[in-house]
Design a protein that fits this description.
Strand content: 25-35%
Radius of gyration: 26 Å
Shape: elongated
Largest sheet: 9 strands, mixed
Number of strands: 16
Distance between the termini: 87 Å
Oligomer: single chain
């Protein structure tokens, strides 16, 4: 991202972040893809290392590690700027609102840029860390919005390519520099609360944790009308992943391994009689 959006004048590109407010009304497309497409890559990091992803049941899963902080690494795989609407547990990572992706505040990435979102943005200077916890102790529970716990989703929009006018084309032929592309005004943001309740306290959810320095700056982009891709994953604790059949049960795996070693004959004795000496 551009240097003016960083923590300071000496911040590196990987450390800086920008907030983009969608400038047009867009239609939401319910495409679900893997966590990497030709436009963007999404990874969940714990201690700086990506968690293993498991493809199952038509979606992508990761194993939540209770009490551990995590970050969401976004990588722009294109040569054009992109804007990413990123939600955790159905809550926008910038303002914690529940909106359509086209209306959501977005993170802006420059071409080929990689950055990590480590928490909910609580001001222009600070964020509070994501960490795995239970539904009862989640940020969503505190806000009273628990309908979408256990999901992380990124809706990725490309910046619109500027279209040249006839006069600009003629100006280019005459050796004149084209005019700068126009930026549209920010649209109003609407919040549509999705409320729900859950009694399963052992299920994974995300809490709002310690305060960290995370400086951002608001910018405006003219986006394509349709999102290029939706990248979605589900996270669960190991017990739930086993119940869902995403991960094998250790006990079942041990039992199956024993059965695989089973043989039909090991000696030539007669069958033992458990009633010998009795009746």
């Amino acid at each position: 991202m551009s240097p003016q959006n960083g923590h300071s004048s000496t911040a590196t590109a990987a450390e800086v972040l920008s907030i983009m407010i969608a400038a047009v009304t867009l239609a939401l497309v319910p495409n679900v893809a893997a966590l990497e497409a030709e436009v963007c890559r999404v990874e969940i990091l714990v201690d700086g290392k990506p968690l293993t992803e498991y493809a199952a049941r038509g979606t992508t899963y990761i194993e939540a590690l209770e009490g551990r902080e995590y970050g969401i690494r976004l990588t722009n795989l294109t040569d054009r700027r992109i804007a990413v609407a990123l939600s955790v547990d159905g809550l926008n990572s910038i303002d914690a609102k529940t909106t359509r992706a086209d209306e959501a505040s977005k993170w802006v990435l420059d071409p080929r840029e990689t950055t990590t979102i480590s928490g909910w943005q609580t001001s222009s200077t600070h964020a509070r860390r994501f960490f795995f916890t239970t539904e009862e102790n989640s940020y969503g529970e505190w806000l009273g919005r628990t309908a979408n716990l256990g999901v992380i989703e990124a809706a990725v929009f490309r910046e619109r390519k500027p279209r040249k006018t006839i006069s600009e084309w003629l100006g280019g032929v005459a050796g004149k520099a084209p005019e700068a592309s126009r930026r549209s005004r920010p649209a109003a943001e609407a919040e549509s609360k999705a409320e729900g309740a859950s009694d399963a306290d052992e299920m994974a959810a995300t809490g709002i944790g310690r305060r960290v320095d995370h400086r951002v700056r608001r910018v405006h982009l003219d986006l394509e009308e349709q999102p290029a891709v939706h990248l979605r994953l589900r996270y669960e604790y190991r017990q739930q992943l086993v119940h869902l059949g995403v991960l094998p049960s250790p006990e079942e795996a041990q039992a199956l391994a024993r059965r695989e070693r089973a043989i039909g004959f090991s000696d030539f004795n007669f069958a033992p009689d458990p009633f010998v000496g009795g009746r």
